[in-house]
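ok, trying the design again with the full structure, not the truncated one.
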């Protein structure tokens, strides 16, 4: 390995921006079994001193000028944290998550023991399952069953069961 490349150790967390952080915390803790680690905020760019370059705090740190936001950190599973953001400002923020084909789109993939049981459970708890399962056999990827679902807030998740 080149000495110029930093040593990346592990994934710490992923983040999702949600419209209502309280609803998202309730869903991810009650339905998905996540643990709430902490909550912070609100952080309001109008109340935080500007930096030496004149930019406000939220512009300098998250490239969203004049923002007001709340943050919560969840432990979704043993090796994955999930950070939730709720922006109260700016008012012109998009309220629909990007489609899979849109630049910047993302999804979370969670490994499960029984993909069909997991999909049924999530569907009973406010999620929308897409067509599935997707069967992968005999190719370059490990044999598996995958199924995509959206959470109640429109974020896509993939569930995978390795066969």
């Amino acid at each position: 390995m080149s000495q110029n490349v930093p040593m990346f150790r592990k994934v710490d967390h992923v983040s999702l921006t949600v419209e209502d952080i309280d609803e998202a915390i309730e869903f991810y803790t009650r339905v998905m079994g996540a643990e709430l680690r902490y909550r912070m905020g609100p952080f309001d760019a109008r109340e935080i001193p500007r930096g030496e370059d004149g930019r406000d705090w939220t512009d300098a740190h998250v490239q969203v000028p004049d923002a007001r936001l709340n943050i919560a950190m969840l432990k979704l599973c043993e090796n994955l944290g999930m950070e939730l953001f709720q922006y109260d400002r700016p008012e012109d923020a998009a309220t629909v998550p990007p489609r899979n084909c849109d630049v910047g789109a993302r999804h979370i993939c969670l490994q499960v023991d029984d993909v069909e049981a997991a999909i049924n459970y999530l569907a009973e708890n406010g999620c929308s399952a897409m067509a599935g399962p997707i069967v992968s056999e005999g190719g370059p990827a490990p044999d598996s069953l995958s199924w995509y679902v959206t959470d109640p807030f429109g974020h896509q998740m993939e569930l995978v069961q390795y066969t």
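Keeping the full-length input from now on. DSSP finds three helices and nine strands in the chain.
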